[in-house]
Design goal:
The longest helix has 16 residues. The protein is built from 7 helices and 6 strands, in the order E-H-E-H-H-E-H-E-H-E-H-E-H. It has one domain: Rossmann fold (3-Layer(aba) Sandwich), CATH 3.40.50.1000. Helix 1 runs parallel beside helix 7. Strands 3-2-1-4-5-6 form a 6-stranded parallel sheet, with helices on both faces. It starts with a strand and ends with a helix. Strand 1, helix 1 and strand 2 form a beta-alpha-beta unit. It is α/β, with parallel strands linked by helices. It binds magnesium ion. Magnesium ion (MG) binds next to loops.
């Protein structure tokens, strides 16, 4: 299970760099735990262009990630790995979404079967990442930029599953 971070797990604060401002959408922790109980490994795949743009440091991002990990651990949630791409959009990057590189790395490192995996996010790049990696399905949440994406890019979302939020995505996956 591959998860975008900002706008999907937590409220998108636009270049979030302060761990104190990390805030989850409702129900995220228990929903992720249900996925684990169903046998899914959890990975976060996040573009962090704020580092490449010089808005915050890689250490700032790790501090936010560490707080996310610590808070979700209270719900019994554990991520196998957090993949991040620090480059600004105009900089060359092997991993930056919609590149499937991080998902391919997870396949190689953790033996993940991508054809039985899912990518969830709030932007078209997240949907495209899942497509590019050969995931079973890409899901767009309406949180973050998702509702706007659904409105503006409807034609590009063909085949993607649109759900209200991350718990909705989990419910869809587990009911499949
Ligand atoms: Mg996002």
């Amino acid at each position: 299970m591959f998860l975008d971070r900002d706008g999907t797990i937590n409220i998108d604060r636009h270049y979030l760099s302060d761990p104190a401002k990390l805030e989850f959408y409702p129900g995220v922790g228990p929903a992720l735990r249900r996925l684990m109980d169903a046998g899914f490994l959890l990975f976060v795949v996040t573009n962090q262009s704020g580092i490449g743009r010089g808005y915050y440091t890689e250490a700032d991002m790790h501090a936010v990630n560490d707080r996310m990990v610590a808070l979700l651990a209270a719900d019994g949630v554990a991520f196998e790995k957090i993949y991040f791409s620090p480059e600004a959009p105009e900089q060359p990057s092997p991993n930056r979404k919609p590149s499937p590189r991080s998902l391919l790395d997870a396949r190689d490192e953790f033996g993940v079967d991508l054809s039985r995996s899912f990518m969830v996010g709030d932007k078209l790049i997240d949907v495209d990442t899942g497509r590019n990696a050969g995931c079973a399905a890409s899901l767009l949440v309406r949180t973050g930029y998702g509702a706007e994406t659904e409105r503006k890019d409807a034609a590009k979302l063909a085949g993607a599953v649109v759900v209200d939020d991350l718990p909705g995505a989990v419910a869809w996956i587990l009911a499949r």
